[in-house]
Amino acid sequence: MGNKTPSRSKTGCLKEINKTTIFKQEQPQTWCCCSLVYLSVDQTFLAFAEKRKTLSDTNAEVLVLRRGTWKDAKNQEVEWDSGHQVLSSACLPNHRSMNPCPVYERESKTLFLFFVCVPTRVSEYEQIRTNKSQGRLCYVTSKDAGKTWSHTIDLTADVIGEQMKEWAPFAVGPGHGLQMKSGRLIIPAYAYRYTGKPDCTSCCCLSFCCFTPYALAFFSDDQGITWKVGNQMDVESCECQMAEIIDEKSVSTLYCNARTRLGYRTEALSYNSGEDFATVLSPNKLIETGKGCQGSVLSFLEQSNSPKTWLLYSHPSNPKNRVDLGLYLNKTPLDSSGWPDAPLMILHHGPSAYADLVEHEPGRFACLIECGKEHENEEIAFLLFELPKQKQKTPNYFFPSATE
Questions:
Q1: Which residues form the signal peptide (predicted)?
Q2: Catalytic annotation present for 264
Q3: How far apart are CA 63 and CA 86, in angstroms?
């Protein structure tokens, strides 16, 4: 997809952002639950997704990857491999692989790809109906920017252990994990727990109303050699992403932004790097879409020499439907009142859903988006953008050329 000069509205705002199609829906297959990572040492973008037979969770099959190489800084050109790579080692026998969650470990130069494996044809509802989690916590690693991958490591017994008896379905991500400035690796996750009334089990079958999802983090302090599980939040919080917030005194706080069924997002803070989330920020600031949708968050250094970080958040901006993916900026991320009522910009006009944000270079960002013209699962698209300067009213966009 080549460069294109976008049209402008009378207010000077860009009407349309040029995007590169990474995965396109073609019967009998579709793609969803995207995640994105940028490896600066290799100047490579890695776009992950689930390959499915249909949009149903039970028809997920394998994880796939497409690689993009940053070729020309002057022309903002990203060259994408012509086809996708099936991650054939990222699986367990008779299971489907879901929810890709990549994180890069700086010291060992190792890319971790976390995911969950669920027995073929076992649905989320079935796990809730039986009050039994059947998922497995797994990961693979790559030392060569995703060209080759290790065999699958199943952490379920060693990391979750007896807690599995208290969980119904659980999952990681989807979307990127992070490495904190301390070196700790963070994998965002959530797990359903039974929260029904004592007489609820007398029903003919358990249902979603009897179970509530609670977010948590898996973490490692030894470059991913061993992993631990943090405590779950005590408020509803489903699919989530996390970001490290640094204040003006260089103090670190881990922030979590999670999907809910309550009409608004859950935001929470951890002061011990994900071992638990002690503070829940004021609710009702970030509006949830319809029955809920995944959102992406990313912290980055503010546009000065300060150590402080700001926070970006992407999510459908319509309160009822998954349309018009908005980008929001909070310059005081420890305070939820810092979120604006309106998005800073719209990354995609029209149907849009799950997305993943990464910082490409200081002040320059990329986003992978589920989007389309008629429905949100027509394609997974990639775009690059730059935030407006503080005195600039109109956003700057990069329009990458791509070899498909």
A1: none
A2: no
A3: 6
| SS3 (DSSP) at 338 | helix
**Separation in Å, CA 296 to CA 89, 299, 331, 379:** 27, 11, 16, 18
Active-site option among 57, 105, 288, 379: 57
pLDDT, residue 56, reads 85
Catalytic residue among 38, 104, 255, 354: 354
Q: pLDDT at position 398, please? A: 40
Catalytic option among 244, 267, 370, 378:
370
Residue 350 φ then ψ, to 5°: 110, -170
Q: In the CATH scheme, what is the code of domain 20-398?
A: 2.120.10.10
Contact in structure between 269 and 255 (CB atoms under 8 Å): yes
Q: How far is CA 219 from CA 100, 227, 257, 276, 296, in A?
A: 16, 6, 17, 11, 19
- What are the backbone dihedrals phi and psi of residue 227, each rounded to the nearest 5 degrees, phi first? -130, 150
Query: Is 354 a residue of the active site?
Result: yes
Q: What is the pLDDT of residues 110-127, one digit of tens each?
A: 999 999 999 998 988 889
Q: Give residue 204's identity as a one-letter amino acid code.
A: C
What phi, psi does 336 have (nearest 5°)? -65, -20
Per-residue pLDDT reduced to its tens digit, 301-340: 987 778 899 999 999 999 999 999 999 999 999 999 999 9
The C-alpha atoms of residue 353 and residue 318 are separated, in whole angstroms, by 11
Low-confidence stretches of the chain (pLDDT beneath 50): 1-15, 198-199, 201-202, 204-205, 391-404
Q: Where are the domains of the chain?
A: 20-398
What integer pLDDT is reported at residue 6 of this predicted model? 34
For residue 39, list its beta bridge partners: 44
107 is catalytic: no
Nearest-angstrom CA–CA distance, 382 and 19: 6
Contact 176, 356 (CB under 8 A): yes
Give the model's pLDDT for residue 55.
85
Around 253, how many Cα atoms within 13 Å sit in the side-chain half-sphere?
24
- What is the residue whose two structure tokens read 């302090």? 221
Q: What is the pLDDT of residue 9?
A: 36
